[in-house]
Amino acid sequence: xxxxxxxxxxxGSQGLQQFLLLAKTARGPAAVELVKQALSAGGxxxxxxLLETECVKDLSSESNNGYVTLLEIxxxxxxxxxxxxxxxxxxxxxxxTTKLKHLxxxxxxxxxxxxxxxxxxxxxxxxxxNVRELEDLIIEAIYAGIIQAKxxxxxxxxxxxxxxxxxxxREKLDSMIEKLEHCWTARVEVHSSVIMTPMVVTKLCS
Length: 206
Hints:
With about 210 residues, the protein is mainly alpha-helical. It has helices at about 1-25, 30-40, 50, 55-60, 65-75, 80-85, 95-110, 115-125, 130-145, 175-205; strands spanning about 115, 145-150, 155-165. Residues about 190-205 have low confidence and may be disordered.
């Protein structure tokens, strides 16, 4: 299962490479079109490197800066973030909407392994009465290889097993590294206690 997720992450990174190559010469309207294509491209789910290119940075100081904000939302944000700024941003196409909703599911998965349907419905702007639409969207994300999860219809929640990684803002890298170090330390302590427990039981029984 995790192999499928790893493959998707690798393919997504490779898919982005073609846009990074085009970004070396794209400027103005061509840069805008490049962003549009990247956001719509199947299998491309990371955008941080594209944000760092000169052609995208140049758009920040032009009238097309809305596309930079849109790209940032696809890199770091969620569908709710887009909805909150929708009037000031370019409209999403059907494929772009689906992709951003898929990425939103990944973001929610990173926060909780068991995601209530109610949370998903709210964050994805789907009517509470339309659970079928939600489940279809989740199944699409699973088949796309960006998340491995099971639908728990009885308890109305999504049970997450694994998912692809998303882009991380530079200013959050330090805190992310600190959390990883803490998790690693805690994991070592847990494994140590697991190793020691049988020894204690054996000694008490001897």
